[in-house]
Amino acid sequence: MSDMLDDRFDDQLRDSARDYNAPPTTPREEMWAAIQARRADGQADRQTGGKIRQSPSISPSDRPSARPSVRLLRWPAAIAAVLALGIGLGRLSAPRPSPAAPIIATSVNPPRNGDAAYRITATEHLGQSEAFLTLFRASVRRGGNEQLASATARQLLATNRLLLDSPAASDARTRLLLQDLELVLAEIAQLAPRPSSPDLDLITEGLERGGMMSRLRTAVPSGASPTQGAL
Amino acid sequence: MRDQELIGRVLAGDPSAERALYDAHVDRVFRLVYRMAGDVDRAQDYTQETFIKAFSRLGEFRGEAALSTWLGSIAISIALNGLRKVKRSMEREVVLDEALTVSRTTAAAEPDLKERLAQAIDDLPEGYRAVFVMHDVEGYTHEEIASSLGVHTGTSKAQLFRARARLRKSLADFVKE
């Protein structure tokens, strides 16, 4: 008797479960374009001996949630603020030549420790920017809170400018990415409190057209978190 | 047979064969990862990652299982890994959020059966949920599930049995009604 009830329940369960996370229409073309772009990026990396990307097999969504939640936007903002503070403190505490001391010619290249610190900071920033832009794109699709996004973009923009101005910013590809990222972040930072759809469409189209998301994903070493495994 | 032909052409460097292979399997892969992720952006990312990985490793495919099963195993592995990391990230965000916001309680409306069921499925342990979604929702056979998850067929059956038992327990009050 109990088995019969269980069987009937299982049948009902199967029927009801078909609506569980019911998939939308497969966005074939969009995904195919992204696959082609990322594979081309991977080939370019191999040809140029690029070392930024460690593995092609980890999903970009492994990084912070793609769900458009307003409270999640605080996370990149908080990290960006900490990064900006860190870079600022680093600049202030860096040794400066004394006016009285003779200027001695040294190597043009900054110390290796500085390079490593810059790479780590830039990677974290790019990871946070990628997470933010993923959230932003999803939020736009669902009519989320772009006002908060604008505030977060300003925080990231400040960090972005510090990184661009850094004397350690010697890698041409990272510089180019930071420059393109600056434009996108500036556009979002300047959004009106209630932005019009065309404004938002321009930004999201710009993200797609410039391959910004895939370039960011390629630039960030894959892993659980942009703050993990950097060393 | 058609898959074998396509694989041969892909390995020979034919880009149209890559697209044909993608077209033949993308719906099934996307459906599966969407069912697991419940989010279109993540599902797209996991699907893209699946095909990028599949194209790069196609030479390793020996044809011991169907190509769809092989792709399913890549897809489910990517989705489970990704969702584990998302879960960790969400837990960290909740801690951060609790520190930043004043907690508030709201009287939530009683969810209907579908919402309760969806929540109960979400709450299943990872392995149970994967087997339940693949078998009862997407219609995979136990052989396909076993091959995709790298477990024995018996394990797949046992996990499905336990998943259903948990769901029965979670929805006990609905069943009584």
Explain this structure:
The complex is a heterodimer of chains A (231) and B (177). Chain A has 231 residues and is mainly α. Helices cover 63% and strands 0% of the residues of chain A. Chain A contains eight helices and no strands. Chain A has helices spanning 2-17, 28-48, 74-93, 112-141, 146-165, 172-189, 197-209, 212-219. With 177 residues, chain B is an all-alpha fold. Helix content of chain B is 78%, strand content 0%. Chain B has nine helices and no strands. Chain B has helices spanning 2-11, 15-37, 40-57, 67-100, 113-122, 126-137, 142-149, 153-170, 172-176. Chain B starts with a helix and ends with a helix. At the A-B interface, helix 1, helix 2, helix 3 and helix 4 of A face helix 2, helix 3, helix 4, helix 5 and helix 6 of B.
Secondary structure elements and pairings:
The complex is a heterodimer of chains A (231) and B (177).
Chain A: H1 2-17, H2 28-48, H3 74-93, H4 112-141, H5 146-165, H6 172-189, H7 197-209, H8 212-219
Chain B: H1 2-11, H2 15-37, H3 40-57, H4 67-100, H5 113-122, H6 126-137, H7 142-149, H8 153-170, H9 172-176
Helix pairs in contact in B: 1-2, 2-3, 2-4, 3-4, 4-7, 5-8, 6-8, 7-8
Short synopsis of the structure:
The complex is a heterodimer of chains A (231) and B (177). By secondary structure, chain A is mainly α.
List the quaternary state of the chains: heterodimer
The biggest sheet of chain A, with number of strands, parallel, antiparallel or mixed sense and barrel status, is:
none
- Most extensive interface, chain pair and sizes: A-B, 46 and 54 residues
Q: Strand fraction band of chain A? A: under 5%
Strand segment tally of chain B? 0
Distance between the termini of chain A: 61 Å
**Overall pLDDT level of chain A:** 68
**Beta fraction of chain B:** under 5%
Shape of chain B: globular
Write down the overall geometry of chain A.
Answer: extended
| Helix fraction bin of chain A | 55-70%
What order do the SSEs of chain A take from the amino end to the carboxyl end, as H and E? HHHHHHHH
Radius of gyration of chain A, CA atoms, in whole angstroms:
22 Å
Helical region count of chain A? 8
Number of helices of chain B: 9
Measured as a percent range, the helix fraction of chain B is: over 70%
Sequence stretches where pLDDT stays below 50 over 5 or more residues of chain B: 102-109
Q: Helix/strand-derived class of chain A? A: mainly alpha
Largest sheet of chain B: none
Gyration radius of chain B (Cα, Å) is 19 Å
